[in-house]
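Lecture 7 notes: from sequence to structure.
We start with the chain below.
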Amino acid sequence: MIPGAALKFVLFAAALILVVVLVRRAFMRPNRATGGPGRPDRLRMPKLVVIIAWALLGVGLLMSLLAFGSGSMRDPVPFRIASVILVALGLLVLLVYGNWYLAPGKDEIVFRTFFGAVRVIRYDDIAGYRMIGRGGRRMLFVKASSGTRLTVDLTRHDVPELLAHVEFHQANGRWPAAGELR
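Predicted structure tokens for the same chain:
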């Protein structure tokens, strides 16, 4: 028979490994399915983000129902504050998920920020870029001459056009003219 502490440890380790594998798998695949009708070119956040947002919203609403509806609590204020914070956090994550996208094109990359501002960086307008490794992921930082900045996690988001322009710049020391890479 397995002792209780060992069984708890094994079950906790198995659950932790399962969560890590699910999260890693969810974040490694680009989410093109919710790019919008007729917009398969848009890359969105992983679907796990929207699942977490709905879970936060549901738990927050259930907590607020209990906190504001129950009169038998000794001190309901902390419970009420926690429920309001969970609802607000769930709504914020839903807003961010609905707004953010990345749409790489042939001559430019269009993206929308977390709060809905649409930005465009033309590939021939890139003033500087930097590629670094961070925690096993490749990050690309791009800055346009207009001051617009974009950070792309290359392990999560597939942007071959942008990478082709960066590789051309590294090889030739200049940006390709419009249509030169086609």
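Points to note: The first helix runs from residue 4 to 28. The helical segments are 4-28, 47-69, 77-99, 160-172.
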